[in-house]
Amino acid sequence: MEYNGINFDTYFKNYPDENGFFGKYGGAYITEDLKKAMEEITEAYFTICKSSKFISELRRIRRDFQGRPTPISHLERLSESLGNVQLYVKREDLNHTGAHKLNHCMGEALLAKYMGKKKVIAETGAGQHGVALATAAAYFGLECDIYMGTVDIAKQAPNVARMKILGANVVEVKEGLQTLKEAVDAAFAAYARDYKDSIYCIGSVLGPHPFPMMVRDFQSVVGIEAREQFMDMTGELPDAVVACVGGGSNAMGMFSGFLNDPVDIYGVEPLGRGEKLGDHAASLKYGTEGIMHGFNSIMLKDENGEPAPVYSVASGLDYPSSGPEHAFLHDLGRVKYDVVSDDETIDAFFTLSRLEGIIPAIESSHAVAYAMKLAKEMGKGSILINLSGRGDKDMDYIIEKYGIR
Predict the structure, then answer these.
(1) Active site residue 388
(2) CATH 3.10.50.30 fits domain 30-62+101-212
């Protein structure tokens, strides 16, 4: 399929290019020392991603340890409540550790072992990436340092406890807004001090090349499985595919399976409390081109052109930029990026729980909320939602802030 001059038959061979660019977005804006480290990671990844031994080992891990493939569930009662459109969810909440994050963490940790590294370093917001990497580190016998903002530590206490039980060292980040951006800052600084013996396992499709490409490739298993499963269940493709977008790993994983199909694709960003800067984290909707954390993308900026303060009820979405491939697909028009508010998200959280017996992560609830609105607009057809994680981590926070509705 060709879209706005891009041939999606060969898309994954051409994007990113050899320098890590998706059009004008991406790249590696880093120090000379870190460039050497990134080149080492890139060379190692391109070597092992073609290795039958690596591929077969990763497939075995996914099958025997992660419990893949995860299923698709038809949301019959929710669909009936909205009209004639049929809603389905890809159940990444049933992936081991409760979210999609383990898909790339096991791949990154396996890469670290191949490279002879002793430690993995990462940031986390909602804690799911931290839990997943701590799990991978325990599985492979690696040291693990997880950087997390003070605000997110308080909101995500269950995941903090899980990381510690798994043997990870959780490093509290007290600078700035004490959320995901500051955690990334601290993790990059730690990696710069210790890149010879460690590897930075970034938690999304962002950062300097090769991470946006590498995380997308590891997460593409979601979209590949989902496409085949949906065809088996219904005999056709979904009319629309929906996923939440912060950095964008779960979304790129799902979208990868459908970019070359006549399917409408929607990425859902957090509108939070409203359109005022500082009240949301919808970078693709309201941001402009800018560089942060080693890559060029679309970001929210303050009056000085620096990354702006952001907010979301979902700790995993409160980041002032998005992955460069999302920026590229946004400009291309292949993916439509839109927003839902905190209130819509929490309503969807309780609705899915009550009607389907599935308690979603707050991040995933953004996608559910948007799909519910989209279903009413469409009137007929089918929507496939990436349910990127389960809501165990969020229950204490939601009950404290919103009560039981």
Answers:
(1) yes
(2) no
Choose, from 123, 182, 269, 325, the residue flagged as catalytic: 123
Q: The tokens of 307 are what?
A: 């990354």
30-62+101-212 shares its CATH topology with 68-99+220-402: yes
pTM over 0.90: yes
What are the sequence ranges of the domains in the chain? 30-62+101-212, 68-99+220-402
> Is 108 noted as a catalytic residue in this protein?
no
132-188 confidence digits (pLDDT tens): 999 999 999 999 999 999 999 998 898 999 999 999 999 999 998 888 889 988 998
**CATH of range 68-99+220-402; options 3.30.360.10, 3.40.50.1820, 3.40.50.1100, 3.30.420.40:** 3.40.50.1100
Active-site residue flag, 101: yes
CA-based torsion, 301, 306, 309, 315: positive or negative: positive
Angle of CA points 140, 144, 148, to nearest 5°:
140
Choice among 90, 101, 119, 285 that is catalytic: 101
Both tokens of residue 223?
């979209």
Give the active site residue among 198, 363, 388, 393: 388
SS (H, E, C) 135-178: HHHHHHCCEEEEEEEHHHHHHCHHHHHHHHHCCCEEEEECCCCC
What's the mean pLDDT when you consider all of the chain? 96
